[in-house]
Task: structure prediction
Amino acid sequence: MVRKKIVFQFVALMVTAVMFSQKFKVVLDPGHGGKDTGTNHNGYVEKDIVLSTAKKIGQILDNEPGIEVIYTRKTDVFIELRDRANMANKEKADLYVSIHCNGVDNPAAYGTETFVMGHSRSAMNLQVVKQENSVIYKEANYKQKYKGFDPAKPEFSIGMSVQQEANIEYSASLASKISKGFKSLSKNDRGIKQVPLWVLDATTMPGVLIELGFVSHKTEGAYLNSDEGQSELARVIAEAIISYKNMMTGRGGAHKGTSENKTLVNKPDTVPVKEKNEKVTTSGDKRGGASSEESLDIVYKVQISASNRDLATKPANFKGLKNISKEKNGKLIKYFYGETNSFKEAESLLEKAQTKGYKSAYIVAIKNNEIIPVKQALE
Result:
């Protein structure tokens, strides 16, 4: 049994070493470009502002160990939306960050906004959504390329996969850090919003779309067009990304100079926007006694889905799987299969869930009723 324990610990250390040896890939996507100038007001051009800001973010991230920066564009070129998403997916990126500026007919509107994938039908939010999705009209044969998607009515034609629904919480966690950074600059932060954006739906990793401000507002437009303004915004966005990376990889401690409170860095990696977890209900048999391979202070479960539907945890609703539990974060409900103190047993549970059809299922680690990165649990 002692030998078995040593072997398990060695394997766990090897898995952790492999995880930490891999770069954390961040895709920076400056919106628009080339023939698509984006929104233009008062002589300020969106495509130029976001490209310059994205490069400044990248310069900061390049100095952070363990991060690899990938740009969808580094020059003034037109990149189709699907190519931006395909690039991020092909790279198997850990994070997708799309940078934009806002612009409306009302010259009084100003402030930052951060968007994550969702199905909001708010008229105000959909105005931004239609504006950002409308680049599709500039692409040749867009009706064939984006079958079933109407940029004018995105709320009716975008459907999220199980993995994307799960990614909403990760995206919201990053968005919360970005929003807090904007507030530290005394910006008029307009908050975090869930909306149906095609490019966030098409990417397979957590992601956000950031509106840096309104170029249609004279004062804010001048700020966005300035080196000082772009540098300030780039700094808080980069710091939010670094804090998110540290949280996801289990590396505690805030990045030097970050505006984030250090106590937030090691919080759960599925923090919702503003709500704490509600009661977890469980059905099925309880796990047996602990073995020498188990860590008694850490519980592993397999997350099989996340959606807005509140289902009874009976096997008939989950392809015959028993021991289903659920956890509510705001409007999103996460469903888990199994419960064990052994990571090895969790891998077996994951394999069973995948054979039942839950191909995007994954293992989560829970300590003190909070989800922590699996990498951290294996240390």
Remarks:
- The radius of gyration is 22 Å.
